[in-house]
Write a structure and sequence with these properties.
The protein has helices at residues 11-14, 17-23, 108-117, 119-145, 148-163, 179-186, 190-202, 218-221; strands at 28-32, 37-39, 44-45, 47-61, 67-73, 78-80, 89-90, 94-107, 173-175, 206-208, 213-215. It is of the alpha+beta class. The strands form three sheets. Strands 1, 2, 4, 5, 6 and 8 form a six-stranded antiparallel beta sheet that branches. Strands 9-11-10 form a three-stranded antiparallel beta sheet. The protein has a two-stranded antiparallel ribbon with strand order 3-7. Helix 5 packs across helix 6. It is 40% helix and 27% strand. The protein is globular and about 55 Å long. It starts with 10 loop residues before the first helix and ends with a helix.
Length: 222
Amino acid sequence: MSLHGHSSFHFCTQLSEGDWRRHCPSLTVLRLSDKAVIHHQGDVCDDVFVVVKGRVKLLRLNRNGDQFVMAVLTDGQWFGAALTNRSPTTITDTAEAKGRTVLYKIPHKELRKLLISDGDFAWHALESQAIEIHALRRKLELMRFHDVRSRLTETLRDLARTHGGHCRHGFELDIKLTQQELADLVGASRPVVSTLLNDLKSRGVLDYHRTLICIQNLAALE
């Protein structure tokens, strides 16, 4: 398996299924429809899931039964069991497909063995995790020091870079999120986020529909 020339964020999806299977023979390909549940919060699971195509929404319930979107993952990101010696692992989030999604399901022991045996793979995996840790720290900083408007625009910019796709309405790109999902990611109520989105819409920065946000002017958002 050679990883030279692959970006750290997308190295997982740039490897062929055959490459994966040579090192992870128990790999299973999951082809999921929209809203299919991959695992529930509290499940016991020893598998790691790699997003090959599509998106996965990570949800968490609090003690009151309220559900929050913790993250939306895209191609090349992974989730599931922690890569530790502890087995089995209790899952902390519910994972749900967002749109048609393809995943690799890999026993964590096989992936851990691959990380130990292949230095290139381990290095790219480390870089990928470092990017995610940096993003989490940035989110904590935004929550602590910035108002909702700043958090919203920063989150939209990040989503545009990682989740943006061809806009079916003719604008620059679109982000497949509902207002409630965006509000969860920003850490604000949906009515507040809706008001701010209306303001950005009036400025010609974006438009939105029921399940997606259309970026009309990415430069203005930046």
